[in-house]
Write a structure and sequence with these properties.
This protein is α+β, with helices and mostly antiparallel strands. It is about 50% helix and about 15% strand. It has a five-stranded antiparallel sheet, covered by helices on one side. A hairpin with a 2-residue loop joins strand 5 and strand 6. The termini are far apart.
């Protein structure tokens, strides 16, 4: 008997059953070769690694363990990729179905858009033609306005040239001042007896012999006009081309405004030329000689600057037919 735990060792005369070299040689044959080569070498290596105990490197997750665990870690990622590919395929299939289903609606929308485009293009052509017409009207209006402005400037220029002569504008400049007074009442007239019937109070019939006659005053004013006077005032009243100097009762009216002694006549122009023209006239010579009936000369003064207001111009009145 053998003690438990002791190894059974065959004796010299005994051999274990089935372990003889002859039996091993008989077992080796074609089948054993097929069985030995049925497994893949990599599979046999993996089975051998699982069969033997894990070493320190494998226990701590060495390179071999990382290579063995790599397929396990990559398997969820592959599943996710497959799921995403399936989802994308479903979405594309749904989009294609929707696109095929909406083809009639798109065709209708395209036709409506084409019609609207044609209508808008026609509106643009109409508005373009209208804008072209309006632009032509504006150009014509501008040309007419320019013509009107040109005529207005021409009229304004003409008025600017005529206004001084019409006394419609204030005037100023050097000139001559002449002062006259009536002969005092009771004093004999300055005219000689042979001239008393030609001037003085006998000519007017209403003013006395010692008063200046309206026609003598007008003669003196006309003499200043002939001397180149540009503007004249009598007693502060500006004379215009239509102003009249006449007698009304006991007064002399200048442009419908009465003036009285002393009579001051201001004329704008060359003082020397005006003085020569004044005393070169008949009334001026009689005034200088003291022979002008009803008046005497107080004095003449060359003025460096005279200022005159514009005359009160009476607007012209046009005749109209009774039917109007």
């Amino acid at each position: 008997m053998h003690a438990p735990g002791s190894a059974l060792t065959p004796g010299p005369g005994l051999r274990a059953r089935g372990t003889t070299p002859a039996s091993r040689s008989r077992a080796a044959g074609p089948l054993a070769a097929v069985a030995a080569g049925a497994l893949d070498p990599a599979y046999r290596a993996a089975r051998a690694r699982r069969a033997r105990p894990a070493g320190p490197a494998e226990a701590t997750g060495g390179p071999a363990a990382a290579r063995a665990a790599a397929p396990v870690r990559h398997r969820p990622m592959r599943l996710i990729m497959v799921a995403l590919a399936a989802a994308v395929g479903l979405l594309l299939a749904d989009a294609a179905g929707t696109w095929r289903a909406g083809a009639p609606a798109r065709a209708h929308a395209d036709a409506a858009l084409a019609t609207e485009r044609d209508r808008r293009a026609a509106d643009v052509d109409t508005l373009t033609g209208r804008a072209r017409t309006l632009r032509a009207d504006v150009d014509a209006a501008r040309a007419a306005l320019a013509l009107g402005e040109g005529e207005q400037r021409s009229v304004t220029s003409a008025l600017g040239a005529l206004e001084p002569a019409a006394a419609a504008r204030p005037a100023g400049g050097p000139g001559l001042r002449v002062e006259l007074v009536d002969a005092t009442p009771g004093q004999p007239a300055s005219a000689s007896p042979g001239q008393s019937g030609q001037s003085g109070g006998a000519a007017s019939g209403e003013r006395g012999a010692g008063q200046l006659a309206d026609h003598d005053l007008a003669d003196l004013v006309n003499a200043l006009w002939s001397g180149g006077a540009r503007a004249i005032t009598v007693g502060g009243v500006r004379l215009s081309p239509t102003s009249a100097i006449r007698t009304a009762g006991e007064a002399i009216l200048v442009g419908f405004q009465p003036v009285a002694s002393p009579y001051r006549i201001d004329a704008i122009g060359d003082p020397a030329r005006l003085l020569t023209a004044l005393f070169g006239s008949g009334a001026g010579r009689r005034l200088a000689d003291g022979h002008l009936a009803g008046a005497r000369l107080r004095g003449t003064t060359a003025m460096a600057d005279l200022t005159m207001p514009a005359a009160r111009v009476t607007p012209p009145r046009l005749a109209r037919r009774q039917s109007q």
